[in-house]
Known about the structure:
Radius of gyration: 14 Å
Distance between the termini: 17 Å
Strand content: under 5%
Number of helices: 1
Shape: globular
Structural class: mainly alpha
Number of strands: 0
Amino acid sequence: MDLPLTRTADGFEARMGTNHLGHFALTCLLGNKIKDRMVSVASAMYHFAQIRFDDLNCRPADTRRWRPMGSPS
């Protein structure tokens, strides 16, 4: 949770890649094998998070310790 700014192999901010994009990618890869439904489970931390939809990739100038992913400064 308290990591320096790191990127996925595709260049996305690591927490966004792990917590959101990874689940989406896995669902897409399994798409033709899913016969009924897919359930995604998340924590209640969304109550505290603030997502900046204009900066989902987390510009380096916006990184600080314990800042919610993509939140304003």
